[in-house]
Amino acid sequence: MEFSSKLLEKAVNEMAQLPGIGKRTALRLVLHLLRQPEGQTLQLAKALEVMRTDIKFCKSCNNISDKEVCEICSNPHRTSEVICVVEDIRDVMAIENTSSFRGLYHVLGGKISPMDGIGPNELNIQPLVNKVKEGHVKELIFALGSTMEGDTTNFYIYKQIQGCNVTTSTIARGISVGNELEYTDEITLGRSIINRIPFEASLKS
């Protein structure tokens, strides 16, 4: 692809690094921004800059937040005795959209995947184990995707907290095996949270 401007080429190359964006789509997006009023494009650039420099991760659950503790963890109307374990922030958003869960979350930041070089130490697992061992958590809900990596991660955490006085459950498998939570419709996901089953029962299926 030939460019008449090095500045345009650099912008396209940067845009093309986004997931699912090829060079042609990147060019179309950059040209669209170029046609917009200068103030609108600069406002977008500023919003991205501020997001990247000022955004925080909740020190309690690892969710994205504007403050040290996110709005979910600091909400007095939510119970801290039930924690829903999810892979990433998109899963928190998906479950929140169902309005079916009033506990707290713990964001792992991924799933155990030896093929990708991701082990337990690369994930936010130990802080979760520490929370359980402190004795304030009564139930852990495993809400990872129904994949081999998700099941492996669930089982690893389950083994780490054996002996603790905590109930473990997993979302009901109304969600197709292999599906990610973010692509599941709100009604199905909401029902899977409400109709969760003991984790031990899922090991036998």
Write the layout of secondary structure elements.
Elements: H1 6-15, H2 23-35, H3 38-54, E1 56-57, E2 64-65, E3 82-86, H4 89-96, E4 104-107, H5 126-133, E5 139-142, H6 148-160, E6 167-170, H7 186-194, E7 197-198, H8 199-204
Parallel strand pairs: 3-4, 3-5, 5-6
Antiparallel strand pairs: 1-2, 6-7
Helix pairs in contact: 1-2
Structure description:
It is a single chain. This protein is an alpha/beta fold and 205 residues long. It folds into two domains: 6-54, RecR Domain 1 (Helicase, Ruva Protein, domain 3, Orthogonal Bundle); 73-204, Dna Topoisomerase Vi A Subunit, Chain: A, domain 2. It has eight helices and seven strands, in the order αααβββαβαβαβαβα. The strands form two sheets. A five-stranded mixed sheet has the order 4-3-5-6-7. The chain has a two-stranded antiparallel ribbon with strand order 1-2. Helix 1 (6-15) packs across helix 2. The longest helix has 17 residues, at 38-54. The mean pLDDT is 89.
Which structural class should the secondary elements be placed in? Answer: alpha/beta
Largest sheet: 5 strands, mixed
Number of strands: 7
Low-pLDDT segments: none
* Distance, first to last CA: 53 Å
Helicity level, as a percent range? 40-55%
Question: From N to C, what is the helix and strand string?
Answer: HHHEEEHEHEHEHEH
Instruction: Domain count, please report it.
Output: 2
Strand percentage, roughly? 5-15%
Report strand order across the widest sheet: 4-3-5-6-7
CATH architecture descriptor name of the largest domain? 3-Layer(aba) Sandwich
Overall mean confidence score, pLDDT: 89
> What is the rounded Rg?
21 Å
Q: Please state the overall shape, judged from the principal axes of the Cα atoms.
A: elongated
Tell me the CATH topology of the largest domain. Dna Topoisomerase Vi A Subunit, Chain: A, domain 2
Number of alpha- plus pi-helical segments? 8
CATH hierarchy, class of the largest domain? Alpha Beta
